User: Fold these one by one.
Assistant:
Number 1:
Amino acid sequence: MSKAIVITGASSGIGKAAATFFHQKGWNVVATMRNPEKETDLKEDERMKLFKLDVMDKSSIAEAVQKSIAAFGKIDVWVNNAGYGAFGPLEAGTDEQIRRQYDVNFFGVIDCIKAILPHFKANRAGVIINVTSIGGLLTLPLFGVYNSSKFALEGLSEGLWFDLQQFGIKVKVIEPGGIKTDFAGRSLDQFDQSEFPEYENYSKIIAEKFTDPDYAKNFGSPEMVAGVIYTAATDNKTTLRYLAGKDAKQFWFLRRWFGYKFQMGMAKRYMGI
Ligand SMILES: NC(=O)c1ccc[n+]([C@@H]2O[C@H](COP(=O)([O-])OP(=O)(O)OC[C@H]3O[C@@H](n4cnc5c(N)ncnc54)[C@H](OP(=O)(O)O)[C@@H]3O)[C@@H](O)[C@H]2O)c1
């Protein structure tokens, strides 16, 4: 019997690539998104369902869980992929923007995990895969709010790794580096800095670096990350962490073997700040 996977944030980027990848591998796929009625790339068939799920709306999470189980009987893997980046100096972010970052990237994941856990516990099986980021292990300038939401998700995942093994449930994190998706485009929530001109020059230098084609040329593809998610879903190992992408592996190598001072110093010099 085919296995079944549920993916959040499958309307674009990594989530969409993962939905396509697992479908091609013969899995039953529930691609969840905020507006399934607008989806044109992914097509429903007997192994692909498009259900509404907004991670900020608990009732939509509960409904998606119930419809997924009704569609495929048993869910084997749940991927918490939905997320986005807030960008800018902390002071320039409104309370609403900062809280929303955590509501989507962190509390939304908690609500999804709580919703699928009874099913996984009843089956005494299941894999929870949280898409964090290399930015969940180290930070980049002006990404502190985003990175801290992913640090929180890393910590939560480590805790759950211990707590859920007794029920046969595996917890895993995927840590991508830079990936060519809508992340840096329509999904980026840039803080309005007009009231904080003292950051103008600093922000300009960093924004120029992030938008330099030379910086983005080594970014990985969402299909590459989908392959890493597939490995995590199927390797039957209790491995917690899966770095995805050359840059993520390089950053982590520096941090791990040379320490945070050295790695942060290198990042500072590289950014020109
Ligand atoms: N791209 C990178 O460089 C990179 C690197 C490391 C980690 N990541 C992580 O990878 C994950 C996927 O991002 P991506 O790169 O694929 O970017 P993306 O193409 O912008 O996709 C983000 C997805 O999250 C969804 N989303 C946003 N808010 C949501 C909400 N409230 N409820 C449900 N879905 C919501 C978006 O849905 P809509 O279409 O409705 O907006 C979209 O499907 C994120 O968690 C991101 O932090 C990305």
Number 2:
Amino acid sequence: MSILGIATHKFCQEHDAGPDHPERWGRVAVILDALQRESLWESVREYEARAATVEDVSYIHNPKYIEAMRRLCEKGGEFLPSMDAAVGPESYPAALHAAGAGLTLADEIMNGQIQMGFAAIRPPGHHSIYARPWGFCIFNNISILAKYLIEKYSLKRIAVVDFDVHHGNGTEQAFWADPKVLYCSIHQEDYFPADTGNWHDTGEGEGEGFTINIPVAARCDDETWLSAFDRYAIPRLEEFEPQIVLVSVGFDGHWRDIISGIKLTGKAFSGIGSRILKIAEGSADGKIISVLEGGYDDVGTAEGAVAYFSALMSRTE
Ligand SMILES: [Zn+2]
């Protein structure tokens, strides 16, 4: 069985998005609790996430935005409409460690210490763009990770699979014209953010054809979801031959999750885990880093996470 590194940090527990806000530490805790009850936990190695430096975050974000967020958080108590969440003094260190978790795991994987990683962090990241927070996200954790792998380890082909129920508009934007990153998102159509993630959005310039958007209808079930992924994502992912597969992991497409309309069960999350493993085994020696995005129903999130990681770690060699 593969060794899975899990990186988190206590600061990720402390970011408070506001009273009764769905984006809370409990949704990460249920994943860790559920995995600990599984036999796969014997193959888990735990890491304390390092903080991303301002230089790391600047791979993706405007330095003026980073500084503005630091000040806003320090001042505290403010609800940011663009983020749809509040920030406080704990939020900036939480965001730096959320971004740093992937970097900690990247170093371990590239140095051959582990085969797979899971950044069990919050706030999530895939909506935030160059100079603004968006949809509960402060810094774009997975984009910072992809750019770090390009800059530090000279990787030339990185696949980012995003199966959160929402479109990862921030990740798409970061690599819109970059052929080194194949961004592939399956998400609920005409949902959040509005007007992004359409079929015809495929990148531009050198990056034309390196963005794949697969919008699926509300009420989509496991079979329809997996067959859309098989049809539109798998051939392109295989052809791309990624050197590592990064995954924006969201369990908010689970049928129990009231934040979305699609109707997935553990079967879908298991199915996509097997497919991602196969892609990674094909060209990346099984190297996969999963980064947590959404998932707001505790039972659905735990079920989805156990199904996904059990499939991902089923590698036997
Ligand atoms: Zn989401």
Number 3:
Amino acid sequence: MQPPLTACRSLRIGVYEATWLSDTPFGSDGGAMFGIVPRALWQKKIMPDERNRVFVGLNCLLLRGAGRTLLVDAGIGNKLSEKQKAIYGLDPDVSLLKALDALGVPPEQVDTVLMTHLHLDHAGWLTVRTESGELVPTFPNARHVVQVKEWEAAHADHPLLSGSYVREDYDLLAARNLLELVDGDAEPAPGVRALFTGAHSPGHQVIKVESGGERLFCPSELLPTTWHLRLAWVMSYDLDPLRVVDLKRAYMAEAADEGWRLFLSHDPASAFGRLSRESEKEYAWLAQS
Ligand SMILES: [Zn+2]
């Protein structure tokens, strides 16, 4: 599914221009996207295909301003096997690199990549293979900001974790000195903060941008799509769903009450918007026009 042409693609947040870049649509198992929610309920929001997949967006956020170029997350890339690409229903015509190219931003210009976590649908474009098969960093001049707990989880070889990570996406970054491991909150650019949350994955972090009195919040997997506005609708990928719900409740209340703009990592149609509070537990999505 392609975002509607009317979807807002770019916002000004103080000194930063925030731009929504789409990597390929991604066919995720429908049940996994909605955890304990019965299909009879979630299919009213999004009908799965004949393989029970729902197609989500792989949304990356570009921040440009104050002489800086930052990228939040890096899609799924193009290094998966043909079989995996078919399983996920990837579209080779839609990619983060094409989106950057269309904006006239060469990968060499990106100075910082903020990784909300290292799952394979977020870290894929951190490295690419050249025609000769050599693995190279996609953003050779960027420091790549990753929580140390995420780095450890991505190397833990735990049976519950290992299917979510692909080491060739990120191990090269350490070898090339492009990795910046952080333990807790960080501010990699003025007004751009990475806040440790864990919960979805051991080192998951969310991003807040505050500049010139304007505010943008990227909750990443704490609120992946507008289908997940109900507090209990969380993904079965979440390692600590109770904590995801607690964090989600706190961040959604803050975002609604303080008027933050949001950027959603997996909504296929509407990445930028705001929350309006309908009741203590219920929110509505106001897409950015
Ligand atoms: Zn994830």
